[in-house]
Amino acid sequence: MFNTTHPFYLEFIRSLNLSWLEGCDLTYPGPALSSALMFDAVHVVVGAVRELNRSQEIGVKPLSCTSPQIWQHGTSLMNYLRMVEYDGLTGRVEFNSKGQRTNYTLRILEKHRGGHKEIGIWYSNNTLAMNSTSLDINVSETLANKTLIVTTILENPYVMRKDNYQDFQGNDQYEGFCVDMLRELADILKFSFKIKLVDDGLYGAPEPNGSWTGMVGELINRKADLAVAGFTITSEREKVIDFSKPFMTLGISILYRVQLGRKPGYFSFLDPFSPAVWLFMLLAYLAVSCVLFLAARLSPYEWYNPHPCLRERRDMLENQYTLGNSLWFPVGGFMQQGSEIMPRALSTRCVSGVWWAFTLIIISSYTANLAAFLTVQRMEVPIESPDDLADQTNIEYGTIHGGSTMTFFMNSRYQTYQRMWNYMNSKQPSVFVKSTEEGIARVLNSKYAFLMESTMNEYHRGLNCNLTQIGGLLDTKGYGIGMPLGSPFRDEITLAILQLQENNRLEILKRRWWEGGQCPKEEDHRAKGLGMENIGGIFVVLICGLIIAVFVAIMEFVWSTRRSAETDEVSVCQEMITEFRNAVSCKKSSRMRRRRPLSSSAALRHPTRIALGAPRPLRLVREMRLSNGKLYSGADLGPGPQRILDDPLGANTTPPPPAPTPVMICQECRRIQSLRSGSSIGSASTRIPPSSAPLPRETGETEGKKKFNSVRSFNREQDNL
What we know:
The protein has 721 residues and is of the alpha+beta class. The chain folds into five domains: 9-102, Response regulator (Rossmann fold, 3-Layer(aba) Sandwich), CATH 3.40.50.2300; 105-135 and 142-251 and 476-522, Periplasmic binding protein-like II (D-Maltodextrin-Binding Protein, domain 2); 268-375, Orthogonal Bundle (Helix Hairpins); 535-582; 613-720, no CATH class. The protein is 43% helix and 12% strand. It has 24 helices and 21 strands. The strands form eight sheets. Strands 17-18-14-19 form a four-stranded mixed beta sheet. Strands 1-2-3 form a three-stranded antiparallel beta sheet. Strands 4-5-6 form a three-stranded antiparallel beta sheet. Helix 11 (404-411) crosses helix 12 and helix 21 (639-646) crosses helix 24 (701-720). The longest helix is centred in the last third of the chain and has 37 residues, at 532-568.
């Protein structure tokens, strides 16, 4: 217990030696401990009195032991005595609030023939540290048929209590990876064990006085033979205890809660573009429609005559880009389906080309992002690395107090890790936690990042899908089995661990306890089927479109039948029933057009609506166009129209008069005639002669019927146009 480095130590020994020689003839045995304690006590009292005298004047008065009065400075002196910190002959001298000496050490000496030899140190917090070099150990001792005390700590999935552990005794109360590994080692080395939970629930960290807490302290004090848990091998622990070879390799990682964006819903197909992009696309569509409408109206090349063969509409020009068509054309281009409307002028073609290029980029971008938005829940990560964590203060972070992770940051010389340690050490309230469960609960309930071993991170992420790992590993280390310093079982346990690794038993045990989680692995990127929660919205859009289409069709049907009923002077219900029967007939794919009777003036305005069996006015016959391409006008009717006028049904078989004057045939009529080349009329009678050649004369009763059929066919063609 003597402090040989004390400046008064040699003078103290010499004074005691002289005093001993004056009163005794025997050899001086050495300084007594009581003398050293008295020396330190005097110095402590002197130092306290000096401090008291500086703060207040001490009056010296006689005291009586029988008097109930106390010294007025006694309480102050006791307070100063408690404040004294002094390195005396007996080591460090400090007192607690109760006046008891604390933070002192006792050296344990072993007597030998040559003198005393230090074999250990006892600390005032009941911790014993023995030196391996001074232990009398039989190195040939084996583990066979021995019972070892195993200290451990409850930590999922290494050591856990069973759900019904009250029904069991001893080791049967516990389960987990380390428990299974202990059983494997016991089978190999033929030993038995008894599991004992560490008293303070800590892994082990050094105290300011040099002692250790947790499992390390129990190994140092020989309260346990083995320490089996998620026990990290560190250089600081290796100085006071022994470790086996690592049975698991890991590193420090960051655990944080998952912050997912909006989950895929019915309208997830809209997610590839933001609402602002959809709005600008709508505005772009309206702008293109308006520009297309104006350009088509202003350009003279978009105005054309669709019926050049009709004499009364020869000077009539039309524009295909009405307001409705201008709105419909961009829709067809955007959906990549095209349209029956094609631009003619250069200006409208420029508008169309720019719009098609725009839709190409938009559709390609949308298609590229659609699959990712439908199948992946994107995670919003505020931090992505330890540097991001160290550079911000919004998210707190910490680790287990007294663990190896805390020691790693405390001893690290890396600048980022030093800043993280300064933050954790100075943060109030404390960011350190007592257990892994407390740290995970803090992660889930607040903005807190938990620094922990990667194996524990992986295990808890498999159990709770709201947890995720941020970044990679901060370091690389391993878990080992702890033993007292100089343990004779170290080599045997190390060889047994290597044997388990070679037999792949440790990997099998790890999979058993780590792969039971409910959450999918983050590295599983296989394609997954889409459910209704992903693409249900497109079905909603489809149903809404069908409902709107049916509603518009009903409105068109009602409007049409109502107008027909007013013209034919029948009831609306009767007309609606008749039209509905014709519309829903499943056996008929075509029907005759219903022609309403017209007045003579209306007939002249609408010649194609005259019944085929009714007499036709002369003016109407003069304006008829035959489907074989022959055109008649004015009084020069010729035998064809005259025949139709006199004998519409061809009953009269009188030979026809001479042929009519030839007329030039336009290209539009020639095209129509070519489409009818395979009709019931003979090919010889329907062939169109060249535009410059005269039309041949036709005679006989059959010619009248052919011309009549030609007129009827051409009328139908005009109605279609």
